[in-house]
Amino acid sequence: MTARVLAYPAGVLGSGGAVLYVLFIGLPVVALLVRAAQQTDFIGAVTGDVALTALRLSLITSIISMAVIVLLGTPFAYLLARSGSAWTRVVDNLVELPLVLPPVVAGVAMLMAFGRNGLIGPGLEGLGIAIPFTTTAVIFAQVFVASPFFIRSAKLGFQSIPKDYEDVARTLGVSPWRTFFRITLPLAGPALVTGLGLAWARALSEFGATMMFAGNLTGETQTMPLAIMTAMESSLDNALALSVMLLTGSILVLAALGLLTRRKWQGR
Length: 268
Description:
The chain is mainly alpha-helical. It has helices spanning 2-37, 42-46, 49-82, 86-95, 97-100, 103-114, 121-126, 135-159, 163-171, 176-187, 189-204, 208-213, 224-232, 236-266.
């Protein structure tokens, strides 16, 4: 009886909080869609050269960024999950730094590292390599801000797998590499897919670090968020159209993520 009495007000407060949260998140999204639907030339805005160029650049750079994050972040996350040494704990804490670091500060920090007057910038320039204010800088910024989402999720996925599974496989003569690809990786698959979806959405929406480190050059560094900022200076209708495109992409990523995770792994 006591448990029910305590649970009842908690349930009421929880329901009220859920309603307020849904309204707080949903109302701006609905307002954006309604205002965009009132445009007279919405199709022309989303199919214009500026929109398509920014969309193409965002997709290309984010795909490359995700490839880098997955190739480097997967073994790194496995190391963090299986190693209990002091240095891995220190590195584990550093993984979360981009999550709390303001993106603008991240962009300035990368500029101080890779810029012409940065720590290693002069050496790179001597080799004929220029990173700031190029498409490569966009990829650098996306990897910096998005990688923690994948690494953190992958690490939790690897930690959820009992190490006994790997030990048994090795006692049966299975090599460590084959054990990883045949047992560990498939079992951690849902966590990796979740991390990949979150990281991709974060890369597509990256603004601050890209602005500071890569600039806002049309066709070279102007991604969708930067194109929205530029459009706001001249045409609210174009900014709304670009915002709807980015919103649609984010929703599709989340929908595909949930569908893939639920059907491919949870259904087994």
